[in-house]
Amino acid sequence: MNSHDNSHVSGSVRVVQCGDYVIDGNSVVLPIGDALNLQTELLHEVCFSELRPLSEDLSILLAAIKCADRSIRRQHSHEWGRQLSISVPVFELTTWKSSPVTSALLNALDYLTGDSWQVKFVARTGKPSVSQSVPLLGSPDRRRIFIPFSHGLDSFAQSVLLKSTDGGLDVIPIHLHSRKANQSMKFAKPNPERKTLSVPVSATVGERKNAELSFRSRPFLYDGFAAYAAALSGGGTVVIPENGQGSLGASLVRLGGEAPHRSSHPGFTSRLAVFFRALTGVKVDFSHPALFQTKGQVLGALNALRPNSAEWLISHTSCSYDSRHASRGKKQIHCGVCGNCLLRRVGLHAAKIDDVTPYKFQDLRVNRLENSMHESDTCKNLAAYRDVAHNGVRSMQRLANVLLPIHRYRVTGELDGLSQYLNRTVEDVGDDYFDMLNQHRQEWNDFLSSVGSNSWLASYIRG
Predict the structure, then answer these.
(1) Where are the domains positioned within the chain?
(2) pLDDT at 140
(3) Is the distance from CB of 198 to CB of 174 less than 8 angstroms?
(4) How much is the pTM?
């Protein structure tokens, strides 16, 4: 366990079996019930497995992690890291208190979020829940791949691409619902167009107003449920769909004093694999098929299989900005200027796909950000959008600049770790890494040329 440092923000979440949901400064009491309700029944149904006490324990742990991460605000102007402690009641206390489980858990959390975590497990009273349904889906003899599914373009693209390579493969997307999900897969009917059936996990967790926006622990929930599903199936593969710009670029190019962004990095998934092996005794593999591809390359491959791009562009979002501020006619739209929106636009341009996405800030060719707004929109927080746009443009440009001699050390410094995570030689990984970065630079420069040197976007780069 890490010792506390008074210079850090510190906070705690204590999960209790009954009582009131209480927030007192940076201390939170989170009762199991309406304030904490994660349900894994559907995972067991699709994995041909009875509900287990360990499943409830894992759900409570993931909820506590989310609550702590969202409820304890960072002091972004002071220091990124926080000291976070959680207390979780569990049925299988001996398992959770074993050194391999706790050390692997803390190693993965610290690496992912840039914080210092402490976890205390206490005995849970009462009896575990009992399965209410009988597994009905598919055949356990088919090979299965699980994919964390956010309804974004990358997760959709990889679901389609994986299915196209092997018709005998079950690609099972796992996604989280912020409301109670249907607790039976009986409702699910085959969809001949998508050919995949996503499994919703009901996930409602109390969090304070004005919650911490960085939410670095989010992949622990998405990837964790997918990994647990693979473990319940007796072992298998979890596919991380993120492209190379998101998986590696986000770690390579930091924003201010933030910790490296490792949400899709092999360094995190390798640690998560160690945790689930220690917890379940089952080996779960993580695969990164698009790790050394740009989003443009991924979308080009998707478009070759699904040329009805207008349909899937409308159905799958990318925007990372608060949807309360990016809406039109009470419908969520893309802001058009955050890092995720810019990467989407660059990728579609590189893949030569007509971008029919509705953006709040539509026209990138005009000379001022406010003039790029769609004619039917208004904006009460233009300064916030300027900041978001500056950060997005700067990140894309800085990733393009890492190949300059003065910055190449950043890439070479990552190669040793990546080669170990991927079990490949440094030279082999380096070739792929530099190819991806060269491709990003080319796509970004082509995109800049398309919007023109007089655009507000180009002016942001010039400073």
Answers:
(1) 9-123, 143-203+216-287, 309-462
(2) 53
(3) yes
(4) 0.89
